[in-house]
Amino acid sequence: DSQYGTYVWPCAVVLAQYLWVHRRSLPGKRVLEVGAGVSLPGVVAAKCGAEVVLSDGEELPRCLQSCRRSCLANRLPHVPVLGLTWGRVSPELLALPPVDIILGSDVFFDPKDFEDILITIYFLLEKNPHAQFWTTYQVRSADWSIEALLCKWKLKSILIPLHSFSADKEHLAGSSLPGRHTIEMMIISLAQSDST
Fold first, then answer.
1. Which stretches of the chain are DSSP H helices?
2. 132-157 pLDDT per residue, tens
3. How far apart are the C-alpha atoms of 47 and 35, rounded to whole Å?
4. At 47, is the secondary structure helix, strand, or coil?
5. Does domain 10-190 have CATH number 3.40.50.150?
6. Are 72 and 79 in contact (CB under 8 A)?
């Protein structure tokens, strides 16, 4: 079943490649993956020495189980898995330890969720002003944009060219899925932050 985070989508592979290229900067970093699903980026970060917490929607038990299975399959039984729902300030969200990097692959999938995702990211960045949100997404429609929402939530983004971390290769970001599969990456931070 390729729905609800039970499939490794091309965006996850591209974000994992970015983490691998930057692996020397990961030991000791505190990383949270949101919308983790199969958790490829989070697993790579943990294997590279980061302190990782995986999360997916608390209402998606299959996704949370996928996170746990990925951890066990990769000999990472100590990695915590939390249910966090975008746009909802929950006790789990409030209790999160400090983070340096937030990961999200293909979380900008459905426009109805875009603001809830950015509300959660804004909350985390306000709590951790020097943190960054590293995200990859598939360009599905020229009409879908988060620009206005970034402005509304006082966030800024920097586009990271895929060629800068060797993720522009067909075998890496390519997909046998039908349709257009252009993958892009950006780093989002607080607009007033100098962390990028």
1. 10-21, 40-47, 61-73, 91-94, 114-127, 147-152, 170-173
2. 999 998 877 667 778 888 889 999 99
3. 19
4. helix
5. yes
6. no
- Residue in 1, 124, 140, 149 with CA at minimum distance from that of residue 62: 1
CA distance 183 to 89: 30
Residue 26: DSSP 8-state: -
Q: Give the chain's count of helices (H) and strands (E).
A: 7, 7
Quote the pTM value. Answer: 0.88
Task: List 51's β-bridge partners, or say none.
Answer: 30
Residue 190 vs residues 34, 44, 123: alpha-carbon distances, Å: 18, 25, 10
d(CA 15, CA 42): 10
Main-chain phi, psi angles of 123, to 5 degrees: -55, -45
The DSSP code for 7 is S
Which tokens is 102 given?
A: 């937030």
- Mind listing the pLDDT tens digit for each residue in 28-57? 999 999 999 889 999 999 999 999 999 998
Is 176 within 8 Å of 8 (Cβ atoms)? Answer: no
110 burial via Cβ count (<10 Å: 0-12, 13-18, 19+): exposed
